[in-house]
Amino acid sequence: MDPVSYLFSAYLNLVQQQVTDIYGTELKTLVVPYEGEQVPFSFQLWQIKQNSVCRPYEQDVRRFSQCTVKARALFGKLCDDLTRQDDSNWQLPKYRTMYCSAAVNYRPMIAEITDAKQDPVTLAERACNQAILAAMGSEDETLLAQRDKSCAAVR
Q1: What's the maximum distance between 2 C-alpha atoms anywhere in the chain?
Q2: What's the pTM value of the predicted model, to 2 decimals?
């Protein structure tokens, strides 16, 4: 490649990079630490991609839920902080709009996983079934009495 073509090519690459940065056409990914949680998300054209928020944690429901709740709070905090600042940079209003829009529109996935609570009827049925298994094929009077006693509460 001759020097003039090389120089022209380099100039076009520089202009292209500046144009994409100005208009936000490139997909950008950020990971922002917030209240002990790493909150990853992507944005393009000054809008946060809703399905990208906390995406790496989707396989772990608890972690994904915690991350999405923190992400919503992060977007709200960034919106508040950017609203208090003056528009000294041309990008500031774009970021403010992006984060304030996400603070309003983003819906976190709220999940709470706990151990199943056993009601007394279920516990009685389980005890009866265990007593039936223990007494099955046995002629031991104590096991048969325990079975009858355990299963009487269920009936």
Answers
A1: 103
A2: 0.62
